[in-house]
Amino acid sequence: MTVSTDEGQVQFDYDKLLIATGARPIRLNINGWNLPGVFLLHTMKDSFELNKYLETANPRRAVIVGAGYIGLEMADALTHRGIEVVIASRTPTVLATVDPGFGEVVQEELKRHGVVVRTGVGIDSITSSANHLHVTGNGFDENCDMVLIAVGVTPNVELGIEIGIPTGVKGALQVNRRMETTIPDIYVAGDCGETWHQLLDRNTYLPLGTTAHKQGRVAGENAVVGEREFAGSLGTQVVKLFNLVIARTGLRQDEARREGLDAVTTELAVNDHKAYYPGATTVRCLVTGDAKTGRLLGAQIMGTWGAEISKRNDIFAAALFNEMTVDRVSDLDLSYTPPLSSPWDPVQTACQAWSMEHRVRE
User: Fold this and answer.
1) SS3 of 24, please?
2) Residue 4 lies in a domain
3) What is the pTM assigned to this prediction?
4) 40-49, 96-105, 136-145, 337-346: the lowest-pLDDT one
5) Under DSSP, is residue 95 helix (H, G, I), strand (E, B) or coil?
6) Same domain, yes or no, for 104 and 208?
7) Mean per-residue pLDDT, 225-237
8) Contacts 24+ apart (CB under 8 A), 80-87
9) Structural domain includes residue 249
10) Per-residue model confidence as pLDDT tens digits over 237-261
11) Which of 94, 96, 154, 216 has its CA 20 to 30 A from that of 105?
12) d(Cα 13, Cα 282) in Å, to the nearest integer?
C-alpha cells in the first residue's frame, strides 16, 4: 500500500486492510458554490473555518440550502448567535425523513424563532457583490452575508474502486455483513460503504455515525480473529431544534409499502408524564406496523426538549431490533415515576392505540 504525504510517498505492507474513507458533502450544480462566505459543513476542519468566518466577518444574515438534520441544526445554532436565517429546501416540507405532518410542526417551530422557511425551491446561483452574497433559483431570490450548503453526502469510494471493489447502493462500496469486500483481507466500514438494513433484509446506504462505529467494531474484530456479523441498522435518528425534539426508527408507512409490506399507521398524542404532576407536555407518536402479522415496522416520536423523546425512540428501536409485534411492546417492564412517565409509558400507550385500531392478535 502506498500513502502520499507532504514529505512524499510511503510504502506499507499489510495483512489486513480497513478502508474507512467516509463521505463528503454533495455539491449541487450551483454556480458560485466556492465563493468566500459559502460553506459545505461536514468535517471538523469545515466547522473551524465556519467559526472563524462567524468571528471575523460578523455576518448578520445567512441562507441555508437544505432542510435536513445539519441544515436545521445550523439554523438553530445561527439563530442563537443572533443571525437572521433563511432556509431554502427543494422538498415540500422540512426534515423530509419524517412524515409531512411532523415536518410541518418542525417548520412552525422554526418560524416561531424567526427562521424564514422557503420550501419547494431550487438554488441555481450564488453571486458576490458589495460585500454581500446574492442567492437565486427557482422561486428564490435573497441577499445574505453567508451561505451554508447542507444537502447530504456521497461516499468516498475512489480508493476502493481503484483496487477493484465493486460499488452498490448509491455508489457505496459493497460489503457483506462481516464488513468484508470481494477482495480477500480488505474490509470497509462507515460512510464509504453499504449498510445492512435489519428490516429490509438487504444492503442500503445509511451514513450515520452510530452505524459507522458499529461497523468499525465488526471489521476490526474480524480483521484480527473474530467471527462477528454486523447486526444491521434501523435508521434510528434524533434531532433537537430549539425546544422541539423529533426522532424516528425503522420504516415510515410509505417506505414499508414500497417494500410490499401491508403497513398501517396510528398516531396518538399523550402526556409525557402524569397530568397531575406539574409540567406535563404532549408527546406525539406515529406507530407503523404490519396489518397482517402485527409486527412493529417503525415509529416516529416528537415532543418538547426534556420529554425523554430520544430514549423513548430507543425503546421502539430495541423492540424493532428484537422483531417484536406492536402488541408485545406493552409487555415491556419499563420504569415509572410521576414526574417522568405514567404506568403505561407513552410508547406503550401509542402501541396499544395501534393494536386497538387495527385489531391484530397474536
Assistant:
1) strand
2) no
3) 0.93
4) 40-49
5) coil
6) no
7) 94
8) 81/54, 83/59, 84/60, 84/114, 84/116, 85/61, 85/114, 85/115, 85/116, 86/61, 86/62, 86/115, 86/116, 86/117, 86/118, 86/142, 86/144, 87/63, 87/115, 87/116, 87/117, 87/118
9) yes
10) 999 999 999 999 999 999 999 999 9
11) 154
12) 58
Which residue, of 192, 224, 256, is where some domain finishes?
Answer: 224
Q: What is the mean pLDDT of the chain?
A: 95
Cβ–Cβ under 8 Å, residues 86 and 116: yes
Instruction: For residue 42, name the pLDDT band (cuts at 50, 70, 90).
Output: confident
Q: What is the mean pLDDT of residues 196-217?
A: 96
Do 35 and 105 lie in one domain? The reply is yes
* Domain's final residue, options 151, 174, 201: 151
What is the per-residue pLDDT across 285-316, written as a single tens digit (0 to 9) for each? 999 999 999 999 999 999 999 999 999 999 99
- The tally of domains found in the chain comes to 3
10 Å CB burial of residue 285 (0-12, 13-18, 19+) is: buried
Residue 338, SS3 per DSSP: coil
User: Nearest to residue 283, comparing CAs of 361, 196, 348, 193?
Assistant: 348
Domain span including residue 62: 27-151
What's 252's domain CATH number? 3.50.50.60
Lowest mean pLDDT among 5-14, 80-89, 237-246: 5-14
Q: How far is CA 322 from the centre of its chain?
A: 22
Half-sphere exposure of 251 (CA within 13 A, CB side): 23
Whole-number Cα distances in Å, 139 to 8, 33, 61, 89, 136:
49, 19, 19, 11, 8
Cα–Cα distance for residue pair 205/361, rounded to 1 Å: 34
Q: Is the pLDDT of residue 24 over 60?
A: yes
Q: How far apart are CA 72 and CA 79, in angstroms?
A: 11
H or E stretch at 154: strand 153-155
